Amino acid sequence: MNEGNYLVNSLVTFNKSIKNKFQSNQVESDTIINDVYSNTISIRYHLKDQTSNIIGVLIFFEEINYPQDRKKLVSEIELQTSISEIVAEMAHQIRNPLTILYGFVQYLKNELSRTKQFEYINIILEEMNSINALVKQWTDFSLPLKQYKVPTYLNRLIERALLLVKVLYPTKNLDFTLLLNQQLSMIRLNDELIKQVLINIIINAVQASKEKGEIIISTHMSIDQKYQVIRIKDHGTAIRSEIMQNIFMPFFTTKQTGTGLGLAIVKKIIALHQGIILIQNNENNIGVTVEIALPSNRIQN
Ligand SMILES: Nc1ncnc2c1ncn2[C@@H]1O[C@H](COP(=O)(O)OP(=O)(O)O)[C@@H](O)[C@H]1O
Ligand SMILES: [Mg+2]
Fold first, then answer.
1. Which Pfam families does this chain map to (predicted)?
2. Rounded to whole angstroms, what are the CA distances from 120 to 112, 117, 143, 297?
3. 139 SS3 class
4. Residue 235 Cα to ligand 1 middle (Å)
5. How large is the C-alpha radius of gyration of the chain?
6. Could you tell me if residue 301 is inside a domain?
7. Would the pLDDT of 53 be above 50?
């Protein structure tokens, strides 16, 4: 049962029991407060006399037992939405002056010969590029996700994402093993967003790995045939159990230069696809395995 139905049913029963106690023209419900956090709904009634003057107020509280996970879901969605709004505003406020600064610094650079100042200006431009990359991450996180979906082979998408990560980390001598199930058919998904998911997860695996560490990427069909599953297994550092519950939170990071937005974006994109994501430490805490399951709604040819 969804949240809405649950609430409506509670209210209808609630209202009936109140109305039975008074004549209908004597009470009028006014405000309904649904407080998910304290598990209560309250209704305020105005009591009226024969000539409809308000002579009193009645407030009733009822405790409602939302299933725990639903309650958590609602508050998480609310939190994510308000964080998205703040981040969007921050990105906007920074991007405008940054664009103007960038233009002027570029202009100054063109005016200078190869002097010490020229070198400094290059450093300024590089730092501006880092700020710009950060602001882009914020924007990516806060923008509503596009809903288009196209028939896609997951295996091909993995290969494309991996190519990009290798370009980003040319110096790391990592050992990638691909175990791709060639039987997987096309599924409908937002290819750009799922590629983003794969890049974020593979980058995390690369960052957690030592100079030489095997990263195994495999694809499977779930036993019930309902999902296509991607598994990314690294052999780097494990995730400490006390932070496991935080890793999807926006801005949560254990890295010095991390944004903490990678997994927050991943979670949003997977939810958009009605998928499932599972992150757990490997046996003996040797690295981490990320499992993503996407509905395998088969494409009919
Ligand atoms: N493969 C992994 N191995 C170890 N820790 C990981 C892995 N993936 C994610 N984490 C943990 O989750 C945190 C959040 O990840 P993420 O949202 O991608 O942000 P960021 O990479 O910017 O820190 C990381 O800082 C790290 O502590
Ligand atoms: Mg990351």
1. HATPase_c (PF02518), HisKA (PF00512)
2. 11, 5, 34, 55
3. helix
4. 14
5. 27
6. no
7. yes
Residue 290 lies in a domain: yes
For residues 177 and 200, state if they share a domain.
Answer: yes
Alpha carbons 159 and 157: distance in angstroms, whole number: 5
- 84 lies in the same domain as 136: yes
Ligand 1 mutation pick, 141, 263, 290, max ligand atoms within 8 A of CB: 263
Same domain, 216 and 268: yes
Q: How far is the CA of 269 from the centre of ligand 2 (A)?
A: 15
Whether residue 32 sits in one domain with residue 76: no
Tokens of 42: 């309250």
The CATH number of residue 189's host domain is 3.30.565.10
Does residue 222 lie in a domain region? yes
Structure-token match 């690369």, residue found: 206
Nearest atom of ligand 1 to the alpha carbon of 265 = 17
Inter-residue contact 19 to 47 (CB < 8 Å): no
**278: CA distance to ligand 1 center in Å?**
13
* Res 239 pLDDT > 70: yes
37 pLDDT tier (thresholds 50, 70, 90): very low
Task: Encode pLDDT of 160-213 as tens digits.
Answer: 999 989 888 877 778 899 999 999 999 999 998 999 999 999 999 999 998 778
Q: How far apart, in whole angstroms, are the C-alpha atoms of residue 266 and residue 278?
A: 11
Nearest ligand to the CA atom of 255: 1
Quick one: which of 118, 144, 179, 100 has its CA closest to 269? Answer: 144
The percent of residues in the chain predicted with pLDDT above 90, rounded, is: 41
Kindly give the distance from the C-alpha atom of residue 241 to the centroid of ligand 1, in angstroms, as a whole number: 13
Structural domain range at position 231: 150-295
259 lines ligand 1 (CB under 6 A): yes
Q: Tens of pLDDT along 254-294?
A: 999 888 999 999 998 999 899 999 999 999 999 999 999 99
- Centre of ligand 2 to C-alpha 186, Å, is 28
Regarding whether 79 and 41 lie in a shared domain, the answer is no
What's the number of domains the chain is made of?
3
Question: Do 42 and 79 belong together in one domain?
Answer: no
Task: List the residue whose alpha carbon is closest to atom 5 of ligand 1.
Answer: 239
